[in-house]
Amino acid sequence: MTTFTQNHELSLGGNYEQVAQKFRPIFSKIAEGILEREKNRILPTEQIEWLKHAGFGAVRVPVQYGGEGLSQRQLFQLLIELATADSNIVQALRGHFAFVEDRLVVHRDSSQEIWFKRFVQGDLVGNAWTEIGKVEIGDVVTRVSQNQQGKLVVNGEKFYSTGTIFADWIDLFAYDETLDQHVIAAVSTHDQGILITDDWDGFGQKTTGSGSLKINQVPIERDHILSFEQRFKYQTAYYQVFHLATLAGIALSAVETFSEEVRQRTRIFSHGNADLVRHDPQVLQVIGKASAQAFASQSIALTAAETLDTAYLSHFQNNDILDQKANNAAELESSQGQVVIADLVLDLTTSLFNALGASASTTAKQLDRFWRNARVVSSHNPLIYKEKVIGDWLVNQTPLPFVWQIGNSPLAKHISA
């Protein structure tokens, strides 16, 4: 049997209920203000601080370094609970947990005790990978270079800088001119020269802090420049399962909220089936189907999360074939999960309105938030391309795309406005 490298602390799982009970009161408190934040587009800065000070960002950190040592399945179960309270916060923390995962993987070959200590102290990491404007696909305008004094500095602009406005660090994708390679620059948000703007104007997931970022002559130390080629292999699957957990939480919250609306509703239709809506068999059928769809969404998300645990574990075994197989499985199952869960959640968040009347559309209730948020989350990583790569893998064994980019087409400059 393959053995693990000695003295490496792995995060393979903890006492889930014990950890969850620590955070559930915070989740409940977060849920209490969701309507006000949705209606008035108030960023959950205070709510994320609650989680930060409670150690939420360190639940995957090994126990030996002060974390909870949760498995990825347990982490995503916890994130589903949080997404049920506020799906925006889960998406805002997506970049943080991906960076933590990368540090867990790198820990096999070099100690990440410094980063683990930061996470345990409450430091959060935001995400900033996508170039802003009409940058041609493949180009990275954000650069690490040397200034006139010979010091390393970072310059650039990003959009979709999700969670960065709440964070202490930025997981910044850049091109290092001094090393001639793509890198992750771990930049402190507390440094001068950083401008974070909350200008995300999407109709859903409004408060994720996904706006623009400008970095101007920000100093950086060499040990905070990380090779992108060494990024953890299952990162695209990991990012996708985050969306699956977010969607599952949206689904569970929608079913819970609409069930309460049905329970409290006193107005009935003359051609309905009962004296109270809560006893109308057709209305109960709507709720029942949506509940089954939410259950399936959660189950699929957690099953996909288990493949991430397998990929994490395989990294610590001396078997390249096993490692590649585990990473393929994680990428494939996260993609399959995306295709199915997106349809399930978009359908149920629409169909649930059939259980109520036109009054359900009032902005005071914000019941449309479930569909809006699910629609925006489902628009990441286009479904049609996921379906294509799944089919191409199954039929032709075409390698799955573990890393991909978005940007302006090279042909765009030849197209007149």
TrEMBL record:
Pfam families: Acyl-CoA_dh_2, Acyl-CoA_dh_N. Residues 29-99 form the Acyl-CoA dehydrogenase/oxidase N-terminal domain. GO terms for biological process: fatty acid beta-oxidation using acyl-CoA dehydrogenase. Residues 245-381 form the Acyl-CoA dehydrogenase C-terminal domain. Signal peptide: none annotated. One of its GO terms (molecular function) is flavin adenine dinucleotide binding. Keywords: Monooxygenase, Oxidoreductase. GO terms for cellular component: cytoplasm. The keyword Ribosomal protein does not apply. PANTHER family: FLAVIN-DEPENDENT MONOOXYGENASE, OXYGENASE SUBUNIT HSAA, MEDIUM-CHAIN SPECIFIC ACYL-COA DEHYDROGENASE, MITOCHONDRIAL-RELATED. Belongs to the HpaH/HsaA monooxygenase family. This is Acyl-CoA dehydrogenase family protein. It comes from Acinetobacter sichuanensis.
